[in-house]
């Protein structure tokens, strides 16, 4: 029996070649269809983000079903049961459903997917753009840094040369330039001279006229201007086989003057001079000048201008200061020279005036004196004529002059009349000159031994000589006692002649002193002080002529050897009590009034101008006795008040004598002293005021 | 008679002092200074000399007896004694002082000690003699006589 099976017969026989091909194709399709979702799952699992999962599921399902369909189809090539056909049908139906669903879904999905793609592309573009911009910004920032550094470099120096060199160097580095040059205007302003270049160490100094069109083009604007590499300002390097010269940019650099800086007036308006900065990019590179680079160049040019102006100002002020200093020095020298000249002239005038006036005053004074004496009428006439001749000066001063002659003056004396007259003239002249008012008294007398002791001399008249003393006292300007010693020194003045109304002594007193000394006399001046008048006194030794003896003028006793020491006040200083007593005894025996002291301090305390002699023991060892002599000299500045100083010492060799002399002692005595020795010594001392012989 | 005798012995005594070299002409000077206004001059001076010298000799003994002799202190004393003795004419004392000083300069302690002894010896000698002299003078004066002036010619 042929069983009726529920099998379904395929349409075509299974052996049919076509069937075979279909069979294989179906098989492969199934396999492919099964593997696709696997791949999908695998890759989706791998990726982190996949927003369309449900699409995938749907699509997966569709594929799987399709695959299943084709797989099941394989069984339909041969006789197959109804079940298989059923499954086949189910699968197909399902597949159909899912496919339709998927198809419907894709209608929505695909545009989405496409737009994702678009966005992705967009974002990519944006990112690329941003990258580019980043790069640009960085470059700009880099450049900005360079500018700042450059500016700093430029502004850090005030030296013109350094500023410009630095500028070129830094610019060259920052912008990687091939060449960089600076053209400065010449003095005349008609040409530009190549002053600085970057690469060439010694630029060839050539010039271009300033009126070139290309230069004008650059000078007109403050921007950096691209110029042709072939223009004269850009042809800096020898062209050596480079075909494509780099682009060249030029910018003006204003050169500012001091006067351009007004407070509210930006110098741009008044500036006239520019320098030209030329910058060349490297040849044979495709580089082009970018905007930011041009901006950088402009900024630099401005900075350079400012820095240069600062340098110029500084230079200017330094120069001005140096000039001022020079002028100051010159002025100072001139002033000092002028002062010296004026002083010299004044001194000269003053001395001349003074020297010319002195005799005049003296003449007037003496002529007036002469008038008082008995004169014959002719003589009186002559004297009056003389006075009238010099009346103008006479009128200025009306000083009464009185003359006192001591009664014991010898009538006839022997001496140097001419010089004596000169001395009197000088002194009286001085008296007249120094006195503005008051009177002048002239006194002449014979000096005696009991007169108040004069500074240097104690005179004892001998038989044929006597000492004439002349005192000229005025009530005029007076002299500071401290200045008195200087009066007798030639030309020594206490003040510049020009500043004293009554001039100083000049030569007069010095000459008078010389004459007086020649006459074995002495001259000195006493004054209580400024404004208290002045007394000039001199002693001169004159001979008494025979006629005087005949006329019976009493002689002064001549026995100098036995001078009476009665009442002579002396002071004895000796540390040794015994020898002090002995010395005192000696002196008392001779009639002196003796005071004793036992130490230098006591001596200084006690010694006074009443003591005529001080005897001091100087042989105590270890004590500097001679100091006392110095101290006494200090204490008694007026020499006529100072007591005579005699050293008592145990040895009297030459060195001791010299020592005593050097310390201002007037004599030395050997201990122990005998009476006769003391007597002789004392009388010699008092006569001559110095004693170094009696040993 | 006694007075004349006394005066003679005074003169002889004084002469002997000079001949022995105990005193020198300085003493005569002192005597010359004595007059009516200053009758006791010589004795005053000599008394002072004795006082001074006693003190100095004392100090010298003390100084030289020290462990370490300070010659800087010794020398001034000797100098002073020399000065005093020469002022009154005590010749031998003065000479001894001169020798003393040279030993002081040499810083010779032994020598100084010896000198001190010598000085003391001379000093006591002259002191003794002068005291005797004064006694004689006093006796003469007490007897109403005058002290004869010394002749200078010897």
Keywords summarizing the entry:
heterodimer, A: alpha/beta, six-stranded antiparallel beta sheet, six-stranded mixed beta sheet, 17 helices, 49% helix, B: 154 residues, mainly alpha
**Count of β-strands of chain A:** 17
Proportion in helices of chain A: 40-55%
How helical, in percent, are the residues of chain B? Answer: over 70%
Structural class of chain B comes to mainly alpha
Q: Roughly what fraction of the amino acids of chain A lie in strands?
A: 5-15%
User: What is the first-to-last residue Cα distance of chain B?
Assistant: 26 Å
Order of helices and strands of chain B: HHHHHH
Largest sheet composition of chain A:
6 strands, antiparallel
Q: Classify the beta-strand content of chain B into a percent band.
A: under 5%
Largest interface: A-B, 20 and 26 residues
Distance between the termini of chain A: 205 Å
Q: How many helical elements of chain A?
A: 17
Low-pLDDT sequence parts of chain B? none
Shape of chain B: elongated
EC number (chain A): 2.7.13.3
Domain Response regulatory (chain A): 569-686
Cofactor (chain A): Cu cation
Modified residues (4-aspartylphosphate) (chain A): 617
